[in-house]
């Protein structure tokens, strides 16, 4: 009506100007202002659009009567979205806002480096003018933050590997990823409850510690060294950490990395909120003592050769050649300037032989926490029994188990094997486990006794040898005394 009125009242040359004026007057008197958030901003995808879509899908906002449902690849949950041209009311700190999903047909395909979708999508946010400041300063940030949280919750975590060696994929990424669906959590992890609680608190402190790290001038990263015999839950602990914090895992295969610079490139391509894992670090590379490497480097630099790699690989005594990854490269990877090229990252190293590691890796501050994954203890056994059988030990049984569990030196993996085998029959499972523990305790007791006896026998043999030697010496001395005079 307004338009036809405009056409009849105003001559064509004044039409545009009058429309503009009309619009201005309308905006001036209207108590609302409007923000358009389009799906594509120029040629780039608008992150805010995706964030709003995800935010509106959160259950709190589901009051719309018509919703579109989607489930992404590898995602474990369904996302709700506003249908085309539908509206939704949301409130934030006392302000009420209205979202409208606007979908229109794209009329003519304009020139673009990549084909644009046929539909033009966007959200229009309608806000009262008096709330404009609040929306621009905090509401949109809140939406972005909430969307990031939701994304993390909805998507399964990814497990990255560098098993392709140094080759890159079509997008120039050195990492390959698969959905990470390990079910291990801190609830299912059998270990001493006190140290478990300590680790969980440490992880939470880390994840919520952005301000602290900023204030103290430290890089926002943390290192854990997990050590202990095979089958004590080191890998399960890493999975539990990832599930607890909602982080992705980068499983770094050091044997596939050829040089220190390749290692650095891999690090640069990791995202924040991730755990970078090097399993069995003692077996991965020949980690030479840095002092030795430094000494060799000095010699070589005296001969006008400055290659650090050559120096360190020379120190390893091997014929690894110049292109090898060195301990110093690895330390730079975790500690140096490059380790800060992202944020919120956790480094986890695992080993079965902590005594084989170079002291440089163990010094304080390098790995923030050393976690000993030991043989199964009574509290850990309780967790396993509860998880596998839904069974609580009775008081008499507790005493019986307590007597054998420590000397038996059985790993949680050994114990879970026995429990899985008999999981249909609880009492049989417990009886068999007790029997197995007794046998192992006896065996390891005998082994220890044997070692002790071997020690004794060796001592006795040494004593005998010593005596024989002394007798021979005396005989010799006697002979010298006897024949010396004659000679
Ligand atoms: N502490 C534990 N709590 C619960 N389950 C465990 C624990 N330790 C081991 N297991 C069970 O034993 C299996 C092997 O454990 P895991 O791979 O975590 O051991 P690991 O310490 O990483 O061994 P390795 O040193 O050989 O890599 C897992 O599948 C898990 O079910
Ligand atoms: Mg393991």
From TrEMBL:
Catalytic function, reaction form: ATP + H2O = ADP + phosphate + H(+)
One GO MF term attached to the UniProt entry: ATP hydrolysis activity
GO BP annotation list: response to stress
Family designation: Belongs to the AAA ATPase family. BCS1 subfamily.
Official protein name in the record: AAA+ ATPase domain-containing protein
Boundaries of every AAA+ ATPase domain copy: 220-377
Chain residue ranges for the region called Disordered: 454-487
Pfam families in the cross-refs: AAA, AAA_assoc, AAA_lid_At3g28540
Protein keywords: Hydrolase, Magnesium, Signal
Tagged with keyword Hydrolase: yes
UniProt keyword Magnesium, yes or no: yes
PANTHER family noted in UniProt: BCS1 AAA-TYPE ATPASE
Cofactor: Mg(2+)
């Amino acid at each position: 009506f307004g338009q036809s009125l405009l056409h009849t009242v105003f001559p064509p040359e004044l039409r545009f100007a009058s429309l503009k004026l009309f619009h201005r007057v309308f905006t001036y008197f209207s108590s609302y202002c409007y923000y358009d958030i389009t799906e594509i901003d120029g040629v780039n995808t608008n992150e805010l659009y995706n964030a709003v879509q995800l935010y509106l899908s959160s259950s709190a906002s589901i009051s719309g009567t018509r919703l579109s449902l989607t489930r992404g690849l590898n995602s474990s949950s369904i996302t709700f979205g506003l249908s085309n041209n539908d509206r939704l009311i949301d409130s934030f700190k006392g302000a009420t806002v209205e979202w409208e999903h606007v979908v229109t047909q794209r009329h003519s395909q304009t020139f673009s480096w990549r084909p644009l979708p046929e539909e033009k999508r966007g959200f229009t946010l309608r806000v009262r003018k008096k709330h404009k400041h609040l929306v621009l300063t905090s509401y949109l940030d809140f939406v972005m933050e909430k969307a990031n949280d939701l994304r993390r919750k909805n998507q399964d975590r990814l497990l990255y590997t560098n098993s392709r060696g140094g080759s890159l994929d079509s997008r120039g990424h050195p990492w390959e990823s698969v959905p990470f669906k390990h079910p291990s959590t801190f609830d299912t992890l059998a270990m001493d409850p006190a140290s478990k609680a300590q680790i969980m608190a440490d992880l939470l402190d880390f994840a919520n510690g952005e301000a602290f790290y900023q204030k103290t001038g430290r890089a926002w990263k943390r290192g854990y060294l997990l050590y202990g015999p095979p089958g004590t839950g080191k890998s399960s602990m890493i999975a539990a950490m990832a599930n607890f914090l909602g982080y992705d895992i980068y499983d770094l295969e050091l044997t596939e990395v050829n040089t220190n610079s390749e290692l650095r490139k891999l690090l640069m391509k990791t995202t924040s909120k991730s755990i970078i894992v090097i399993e069995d670090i003692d077996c991965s590379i020949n980690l030479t003592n840095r002092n030795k490497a430094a000494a060799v480097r000095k010699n070589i630099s005296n001969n006008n050769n400055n290659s650090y790699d050559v120096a360190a690989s020379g120190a390893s005594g091997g014929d690894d050649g110049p292109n090898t990854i060195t301990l110093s490269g690895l330390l730079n990877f975790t500690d140096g300037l490059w380790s800060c090229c992202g944020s919120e990252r956790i480094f986890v190293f695992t080993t079965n032989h902590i005594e084989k590691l170079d002291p440089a890796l163990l010094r304080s501050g390098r790995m923030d926490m050393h976690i000993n994954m030991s043989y199964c203890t009574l509290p850990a056994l309780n967790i396993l029994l509860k998880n596998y059988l839904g069974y609580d030990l009775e008081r008499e049984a507790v005493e019986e188990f307590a007597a054998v569990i420590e000397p038996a030196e059985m790993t949680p993996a050994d114990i879970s094997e026995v429990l899985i085998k008999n999981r249909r029959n609880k009492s049989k499972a417990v009886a068999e486990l007790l029997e197995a523990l007794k046998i192992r305790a006896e065996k390891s007791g005998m082994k220890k006794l044997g070692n002790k006896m071997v020690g004794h026998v060796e001592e006795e043999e040494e004593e005998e040898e010593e005596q024989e030697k002394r007798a021979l010496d005396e005989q010799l001395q006697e002979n010298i005394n006897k024949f010396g005079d004659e000679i």
